[in-house]
Recover the amino acids of this structure.
């Protein structure tokens, strides 16, 4: 290392105001999710319109800014795509939730599932299968319509009313797809009634009256607007994991879930599309 | 204004394109510019947060503002959010990382990547771009170009031969083209040594068919932020 290779934080007189203006305009384009115009940028940055226009000309020529399809406004350009080499960094609910699934399994010794909305279905995308002669099995990747089963309806309940109405319209005529009877799945009234009751409690402890062997605890994992990223479900045979046993463990279960719930609130849940 | 700012942006290009941190002398040599000029450009870029010193050395890497800029552009592809749950379903079926690639000009760009559920994880950078014929995902998009566009592409990348229409859908079992009968608009890749069973392949195709139903129902959601630009105007 030589001193000539080190600009330093304090030792260099800042002499390049024009470059700084161009970079300021570039960063301002990235701040808003919508395209911005010359006048708006000039006002926001305390520059005159001529300066902003010249900065945008330089940025567009280098690919760091581009005109929006509207023609008048500007957005960050395609060259910004190349600016970082960090690896994939989606907010990954599966990676976030997996340690929590492990802890819930260690606490309950039962099967634990993470399910998300995919199109008009609930799909289990991660699970930890309990071991033993009688445990709940999962069908990872298998789609179940959002109006069928209590687990699906917990996901549906944590969407906006208009989204739910759109879903019910798109999914009509409503049918249950499970071999077990599920009267609530078969009418819009039944679905709304169940959604209202799910929303009151926030989570659901459930044993299917027509399914003699299993009980479930179902917890939504929501964003800041109370829209579900996913649900976490713990399920086991009723001879050892019935509602009273779940209720006794509930404070510990909620404590395990709390860090995941806190983290999930920081990012918006994916958009809900019912057209597929 | 233009020359010093344009030079600073070329310095940023160099640092972003390098797979290791770069020093002033290396950048000056690459740009055939005096070290003092590079020095001033780096100072402006550092103050903006677009580059940062690598572990307090005299070498530079992209800074936090560069990452914000990249994310800002990726976030403008609305298709990304629409496809995200479907990519998670594919990751769950395959156990491998699944990526969504879209066209920007004559390039294919990875705009979304969902990690798999297997023990070994493949991880590739978002924003990674290649000319269409240089990656399987790009080839899947290339296969869906109209004849005139394919000719324009050949001229652009100066390839007289070797860039041909491939058979398209299913040509590579780990890449699924996404589009309509008229146009392939994206490609989904399963980024790992995935040899699907017949059932997995069928499940994956069902998922892609669901995305394609959305493309037909709401095409506006699948228009990228640069779809209105001439392909030749985009240089990556």
């Amino acid at each position: 290392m030589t001193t000539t290779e080190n600009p330093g934080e304090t030792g260099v007189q800042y002499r390049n105001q024009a470059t700084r203006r161009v970079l300021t305009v570039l960063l301002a384009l990235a701040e808003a999710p919508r395209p911005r115009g010359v006048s708006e940028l000039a006002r926001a940055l305390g520059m005159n319109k001529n300066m902003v226009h010249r900065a945008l000309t330089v940025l567009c020529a280098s690919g760091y800014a581009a005109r929006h399809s509207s023609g008048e406004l500007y957005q960050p350009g395609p060259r910004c795509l190349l600016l970082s080499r960090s690896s994939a960094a989606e907010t990954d609910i599966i990676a976030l939730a997996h340690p929590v699934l492990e802890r819930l399994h260690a606490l309950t010794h039962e099967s634990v599932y993470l399910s998300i909305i995919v199109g008009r279905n609930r799909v289990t995308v991660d699970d930890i299968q309990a071991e033993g002669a009688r445990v709940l099995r999962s069908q990872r990747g298998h789609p179940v319509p959002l109006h069928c089963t209590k687990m699906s309806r917990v996901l549906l309940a944590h969407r906006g009313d208009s989204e739910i109405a759109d879903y019910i319209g798109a999914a009509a005529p409503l049918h249950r797809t499970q071999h077990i009877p599920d009267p609530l799945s078969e009418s819009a009234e039944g679905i709304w009634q169940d959604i209202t009751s799910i929303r009151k409690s926030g989570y659901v402890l459930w044993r299917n009256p027509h399914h003699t062997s299993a009980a479930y605890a179902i917890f939504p994992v929501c964003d800041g607007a109370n829209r579900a990223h996913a649900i976490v479900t713990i399920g086991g045979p009723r001879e050892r994991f019935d509602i009273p046993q779940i209720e006794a463990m509930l404070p510990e279960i909620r404590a395990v879930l709390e860090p995941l719930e806190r983290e999930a609130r920081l990012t918006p849940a994916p958009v809900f599309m019912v057209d597929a | 204004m233009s020359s010093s700012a344009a030079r600073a942006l070329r310095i940023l290009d160099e640092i972003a394109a390098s797979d290791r941190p770069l020093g002033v002398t290396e950048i000056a040599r690459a740009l055939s510019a005096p070290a003092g000029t590079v020095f001033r450009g780096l100072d402006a870029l550092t103050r903006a947060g677009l580059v940062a010193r690598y572990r307090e050395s005299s070498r530079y890497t992209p800074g936090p503002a560069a990452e914000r800029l990249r994310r800002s552009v990726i976030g403008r592809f609305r298709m990304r959010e629409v496809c995200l749950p479907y990519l998670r379903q594919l990751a769950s079926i395959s156990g491998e990382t699944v990526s969504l690639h879209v066209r920007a000009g004559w390039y294919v760009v990875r705009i979304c990547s969902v990690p798999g559920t297997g023990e070994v994880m493949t991880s590739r950078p978002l924003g990674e771009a290649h000319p269409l014929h240089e990656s399987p995902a790009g080839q899947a998009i290339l296969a869906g170009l109209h004849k005139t566009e394919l000719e324009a592409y050949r001229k652009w990348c100066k390839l007289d031969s070797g860039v041909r229409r491939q058979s398209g859908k299913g040509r590579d079992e780990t890449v699924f083209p996404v589009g309509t009968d008229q146009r392939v608009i994206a490609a989904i890749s399963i980024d790992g040594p995935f040899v699907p069973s017949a059932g997995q392949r069928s499940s994956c195709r069902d998922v892609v068919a669901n995305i394609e139903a959305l493309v037909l129902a709401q095409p506006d959601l699948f228009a990228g932020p640069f779809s209105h630009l001439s392909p030749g105007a985009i240089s990556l």
